[in-house]
TrEMBL record:
Biological process terms in GO annotation: camera-type eye development; ciliary basal body-plasma membrane docking; ciliary transition zone assembly; kidney development; non-motile cilium assembly
Keyword ATP-binding: no
Domain of life of the organism encoding this protein: Eukaryota
Protein source organism: Leiothrix lutea (Red-billed leiothrix)
Protein name in the entry: CE290 protein
Cellular localization per UniProt: Cytoplasm, Cytoskeleton, Cilium basal body; Cytoplasm, Cytoskeleton, Microtubule organizing center, Centrosome
Coiled-coil region list: 99-201, 276-303, 342-401, 477-558, 588-808, 874-1261
Keywords associated with the record: Cell projection, Cilium biogenesis/degradation, Coiled coil, Cytoplasm, Cytoskeleton
The encoding gene: Cep290
Keyword Transmembrane belongs to the record: no
């Protein structure tokens, strides 16, 4: 027994040793497997990291590609916007060629003019020489006759010495002046060099600044990318740490028996091997995907390069709208991932655009400064040249005089020596010299006749050219009238569409009200759908209405621009007698620009139509969102209407105030005080505007703004830009007028100097003439009186024409018309007063034709002219100020309207976001956030319960079968996977929400920045306008001062004339000058006739336009009449549609009634069942009773609604019958008239096409494009 027990003990010991060995082997294997597992996990993590890095690289590459494409598209769009309306390169080249040709022609003409002037000067110099010779001869004759020969020789010798001394002095002064001129020219060249160097430095600095800014922006983008990478790495590290913790936490419990522990370890090892194999397979698949993505990336890069090339090629071909469409499609296709990159790109673009604007402004300033400096230099050079000319002339005269005197002295000395010579021979010699001089004078007279004949020929050529240009102008005016008619027809068509849309809107609103009443009674699902459809339709119609109103406004703006251009052309025609060729060139250029502008406007209108269509499509997608916001919009609409009425009242009050102010201004005499008051008012209004702008900025920072606000703001910004451009154009025109006035002043000064010279010459010649001064002055006075009367008549005619043109083609505003009437009345009163003064002075003046009286009369006439011109300029400035004051309150009102609109839209947006919050609560699974949280909580409980069961099973004996364990583990895994899925879903939903919120905030920030920039720009523009206004006032003052100076000079000249000698002889030169004067008078008469003809043509054109307007108005009235009459057929169809809709609603209501009855029965059954099962639930019974009562009341409401719908049916039937009767009463002649109108319209279109073809032919003939 002992041996058996020992044997058993030995066996047991052996078994224990074997088990211990196997246990140690198993432990070693376990450790090896753990190490392998850890290595594999590390390898997996590394691979995952690499994969993530490559994904990130791919993502960033895509982002960069998209950003580049968007940046390029935006640059293309900005370039298109910049060069929208610009001519193509071919046309620009042609225009440049024509301009160069014209400039060359102008230079040639100027050279010819200079040559003619030089010839004239030479002739005058010769005439002076001859006069001097004559005088010298006369003096010689007188000396010979007198006995005092020696004394006269001594006198001549003294004079010669004096002249010689003067000559020496003048030569010294000439040398000094030449040196000064050289020095000044050197200084000017140095200044020019310094200016060019500074400009180059400025450009370089700007470039350097731009490069630094670009580098800074790139650096910001890179840093942001790095931040995103670091965040991604952090999340990866956290996930790996969690995985490692899970891996280490899966060690079997040491409290369990060894075999169970071994089994658990083996199972875990098998699971790990499976996971390793799965991870390897996934790694392979991921590597394959990576290769595929790399290839795709390479292809995408190649595509991007090819697209870049295509974009560069098709940049000029694409129209402006196609780019916008592409942008819209891209924005639709873009995912939510790329919004952050878009925001960065937008910010960079905005910064670049701001910098560009700043640079443009700086460049403009420098250009302006350069132009001013050049003008000043040119003026200084001209003055120096004039001074030098005067000095040269004086020198020539002195030299000639000295030479003549020297000859005379020599002759006398010769005579003294040869006293023995006979006097008869000497006289014979003198007669020969006189004969030679007569011959030379005759030859000069012949030359003058030839020149006069040449001048007459040139005049005939100019007259023929003027006639040709007048015919061209008439043709162009006809074409312009045709274009205007076409535009008016388009406007009428748009108005018709607007009226139709308004009618449709009214019908839809009526339908909506009916549907609302029905909804208030019983809002069923079908009725809600119908109401939603109607609301969406209403929204579409409203948008269409807005688009059409915008188009109409643009048309009006274009019409006003055309009117302004026509007024400018009328003003330029006043200067026709100065230079006919230049006027014709300007008119042709203006007309070509007008045609191009009209074409551009047509393209813009078509683009606007396309945009409106795109908007309609986008709005149809947004129907469901706008259904809920319709009621609030209607309330806002009512508020806006009230506010509009209030604003209209305020406008009327302001207009009345303006009228009072204008009347008070006219009554006042002190103009400067008035201007100061107006300036103060403008400053106050500007300060108020700035305050309001600051308030709007503060409000915009606090409140959020939607995408609709962006669109509205963009449109408003465009409108403001257009208005500001219009104001700039007006300012440029005013500057041009100021330049022309300054040029006129310069010409007047030159004429004055010439007249002074002529006066001096005449004074010298009058000594030799036999006509008295009184007669000459009398003739001059009569000529000046005639010229004055002609000028007055011309002024009156031009003012009447201007007033007529403005009343026809000005903006249809009461205030502008009143201003023009006031202006005309004021001018007429002034003219009448001046005429009375003239008549009184003529009566009061004595009949004696003296020098002093004629001089006074001339002075008074010139003063009157100057006063007239100054008063007209002052009146124009006043009217400009009044218009500016009138525009300011209107602009204020617009700003207030925009603010109110912004507030309303903000409120709507806030409400929409609330609704969206409720709607977006539902995620991808279709459940809301609280529901998902509940499900997660339930899943957690289930998981905890399963874990408890697992632990109990672990603690339980080894009897539990392996199958149960496996099943439980599978369930555990499934539940874990479900938990992970739910977590992922929740995380995705939360991330989407967070992203949407952040994007909304970013959008709002960008909007605020953009609005701030716009406000700053507007403030800068206002300041510029103020500065320009001040400059104009300064210019006016300068002109007044110059006028006063010229009047003083004239007075001095006339006083010099009064003190002239009464003795005068008549010579051949004076006769020549008189003939020249007569020729000049005939030229002036011809020019006045040509101007009168031009005026008649203008009047005829205006009459034609007036007749065309009348015809258009008649047609409009007929169309409106037709619109009101044939509504029978359309209304009948509408009634049928409404009946069908009512039938459908009745059927749906009946179905709902049956469903409700069925539900009532179900409720009753449930109640009886609940009472039988639970007799205690009294509270539930009371609740059910309440529900039943509510259902009964709903049933009663439905019945009343059905009855009301039946009554409405009957009413609609009666209305349809009445409409049918009305249709039957119409005559067939009515429809025949309609067809006649259509036929006439087609014929008019054909005529227009024929006229356009003729115009093209004319353009080709004259080389106009």
């Amino acid at each position: 027994a002992q041996s058996d027990e020992k044997a058993i003990i030995a066996k047991l010991h052996q078994d224990i040793v074997a088990l211990q060995g196997s246990e140690s082997v198993a432990v070693g294997k376990l450790e090896k497997f753990k190490l392998k597992l850890q290595k594999m996990e590390i390898h997996n993590l590394r691979l995952e990291q690499k994969l993530d890095e490559r994904d990130q690289a791919l993502y960033f590459a895509r982002l960069e590609g998209r950003n580049r494409t968007k940046h390029l598209q935006q640059t293309v769009q900005s370039l298109r916007r910049q060069f929208s309306g610009a001519l193509p390169l071919a046309q620009q080249e042609k225009f440049s060629k024509t301009m160069i040709q014209l400039q060359n022609d102008k230079l040639k003409i100027l050279e010819e003019v200079q040559h003619a002037q030089q010839e004239r000067r030479n002739a005058e110099n010769r005439a002076l020489e001859l006069e001097l010779k004559l005088k010298s001869l006369e003096e010689l004759v007188s000396a010979l006759k007198d006995t005092r020969g020696a004394q006269k020789v001594m006198e001549w010798h003294m004079k010669m010495e004096e002249l010689h001394l003067q000559e020496l002095k003048l030569s010294r002064e000439l040398v000094k002046q030449k040196e000064e001129v050289k020095y000044l020219r050197n200084i000017i060249s140095e200044y020019e060099c310094t200016i060019s160097n500074l400009e180059e430095e400025n450009v370089q600095q700007n470039k350097f600044h731009e490069e630094r800014q670009m580098a800074w922006d790139q650096r910001e983008v890179e840093l942001q990318h790095q931040l995103d990478q670091y965040d991604h790495q952090r999340t990866e590290i956290l996930s790996t740490a969690l995985k490692l913790e899970e891996a280490t936490g899966s060690v079997p419990d040491p409290s369990l028996p060894i075999p169970q522990q071994l089994e658990l370890a083996l199972r875990k090892i098998q699971e790990h091997i499976r996971t390793i194999l799965e991870t390897r397979a996934t790694c392979r698949s991921l590597e394959e995907k990576l290769k595929e993505k790399e290839t795709a990336l390479w292809k995408a890069e190649q595509n991007v390069i090819s697209r870049d090339k295509v974009i560069n090629e098709l940049r000029l071909r694409l129209p402006a709208t196609s780019g916008e469409k592409i942008m819209a499609e891209l924005s639709k296709q873009d995912d939510s991932e790329y919004h952050h990159a878009i925001k960065i790109a937008h910010q960079t673009i905005a910064n670049m655009q701001a910098r560009l604007n700043q640079k443009e402004e700086v460049l403009k300033r420098y250009q302006h400064m350069l132009a001013k400096a050049r003008e000043e230099q040119e003026e200084i050079a001209k003055k120096h040249e004039e001074d030098i000319r005067v000095l040269h002339q004086k020198l020539d005269l002195y030299t000639d005089n000295s030479l003549n005197k020297f000859k005379e002295t020599a002759l006398e000395l010769g005579k003294k020596t040869s006293v023995s010579l006979s006097i008869s021979k000497y006289f014979h010699h003198l007669e020969q010299t006189v004969a030679e001089q007569d011959n030379s004078l005759a030859s000069l007279v012949g030359k003058l006749k030839k020149t006069s004949s040449d001048l007459e020929k040139q005049k005939q050529i100019t007259v023929s050219k003027i006639n040709e240009f007048e015919t061209i102008r008439a043709q162009l005016q006809e074409k312009h009238t045709v274009d205007v008619e076409q535009i008016k027809e388009e406007a009428n068509e748009l108005r018709k569409i607007l009226s139709q849309k308004e009618k449709e809107l009214a019908n839809v609103k009526a339908e909506l009200e009916v549907q609302k009443e029905a909804n208030n009674r019983a809002p069923t699902a079908t009725l809600k759908n119908l109401v939603a459809q109607l609301k969406s339709q209403l929204a579409i119609k409203e948008n269409q209405h807005k688009a059409l109103s915008k188009a109409l406004l643009e048309l009006r703006a274009e019409m006003t621009a055309n009117a302004e251009q026509q007024i400018i052309s009328a003003a330029s025609q006043k200067e026709a007698y100065m230079n006919v060729q230049e006027i014709v060139d300007r008119q042709t250029k203006g007309l070509t620009t007008q045609i191009e502008e009209l074409n551009n406007q047509i393209t813009k209108l078509t683009d606007n139509l396309k945009i409106s269509k795109n908007k309609e499509t986008s709005l149809s997608d947004e129907k469901d969102e706008l259904n809920q916001e319709l009621q609030k919009k209607e309330k806002a609409f009512a508020k806006i209407l009230r506010e509009k009425n209030e604003i209209e009242k305020e406008n009327e009050e302001l207009k009345n105030r303006i009228r009072r102010l204008s009347s008070s201004i006219q009554s006042k005499a002190d103009e400067q005080n008035l201007i100061d008051v107006l300036q103060k008012k403008i400053k106050k209004l500007e300060s108020e505007l700035e305050k309001k702008c600051e308030e709007t900025e503060i409000k915009s920072l606090r409140e959020e703004k939607s995408s609709k606000e962006e669109i509205i703001r963009w449109d408003e910004g465009k409108k403001w830009q257009i208005k500001m451009e219009g104001l700039r154009n007006k300012l440029r025109e005013k500057e041009k007028e100021a330049d022309t006035l300054s040029k006129q002043l310069n010409t007047l000064k030159e004429i004055y100097t010439k007249i002074e010279k002529e006066k001096i010459a005449l004074q010298k010649k009058l000594k030799t003439t036999g006509v008295t001064v009184d007669r000459v002055v009398g003739i001059r006075a009569t000529e000046t009186e005639k010229e004055l009367e002609e000028l007055r008549k011309r002024n009156l005619e031009l003012e009447n024409e201007v007033a007529h043109m403005r009343t026809l083609q000005a903006i249809p505003r009461d205030s502008v018309v009143e201003d023009l009437h006031f202006k005309n009345q004021y001018l007429q009163e002034k003219l009448h007063a001046l005429q009375r003064q003239c008549s009184r002075e003529t009566f009061l003046r004595p009949l004696t034709s003296g020098i002093g009286s004629s001089g006074q009369y001339r002075r008074e006439q010139e003063v009157l002219k100057e006063n007239l011109r100054l008063s007209s300029e002052n009146i124009e400035l006043r009217f400009q100020l009044e218009q500016a004051n009138k525009d300011l309150p209107r602009l204020k009102d617009q700003v207030d309207d925009l603010k109110e609109m912004c507030e309303l839209l903000k409120k709507e947006k806030a409400e929409a976001e609330r609704k969206w919050g409720n709607i977006r609560g539902a995620g991808r699974s279709g459940k809301t956030v609280p529901e998902l949280e509940k499900t997660i909580g339930l899943m957690k409980r289930v998981v905890e319960r399963v874990q408890r069961e697992n632990e109990e099973l672990k603690k339980a004996p080894a009897v539990v079968s392996n199958e149960k364990l496996l099943g439980l583990e599978q369930e555990n895994e499934r539940l874990k996977s479900d938990m992970e899925k739910m977590k992922f879903d929740l995380e995705g939903q939360l991330s989407v929400r967070y992203e949407s919120k952040t994007k909304g905030m970013e959008k709002l920030i960008t909007e605020n920045e953009r609005l701030r920039k716009e406000l700053k720009k507007e403030a800068d523009r206002g300041e510029k306008l103020r500065i320009e206004k001040n400059n104009l006032e300064i210019l006016n003052e300068k002109l007044n001062v110059q006028l006063e100076e010229t009047i003083k000079k004239l007075n001095l000249a006339e006083s010099q004339l009064d003190g002239a000698d009464s003795r005068s002889w008549k010579s051949i030169v004076t006769r020549m000058q008189e003939t020249k004067l007569k020729e000049m008078e005939t030229d002036i008469a011809k020019k006045t006739q040509s101007i009168a003809n031009l005026k008649q043509l203008l009047q005829e054109a205006t009459e034609r336009e007036h007749n065309a307007d009348k015809n258009l108005q008649d047609l409009k009235e007929q169309i409106e009449h037709l619109k009101h009459l044939p509504e029978g057929a359309g209304t009948e169809q509408k009634m049928i549609k409404e009946l069908q809709l009512l039938r459908l609603t009745n059927n749906q209501l009946e179905k709902e009634k049956a469903e409700l009855m069925h539900q009532l029965e179900d409720y009753r059954h449930e109640r009886y069942a609940s009472t039988s099962e639970h007799p205690v639930a009294g509270h539930n019974e009371a609740a059910e009773k309440d529900k039943i009562d509510r259902l009964m009341t709903e049933m009663a409401d439905l019945q009343t609604q059905l009855e009301a719908s039946g009554l409405e049916k009957q009413q609609l039937k009666e209305e349809t019958e009445e409409l049918r009767r009305e249709l039957e009463t119409y005559n067939p002649s009515f429809f025949e008239e309609l067809e006649d109108l259509k036929y006439n319209y087609k014929e008019e279109v054909k005529k227009n096409i024929i006229l356009e073809e003729r115009l093209k032919q004319l353009y080709e003939e004259f080389g106009i494009q």
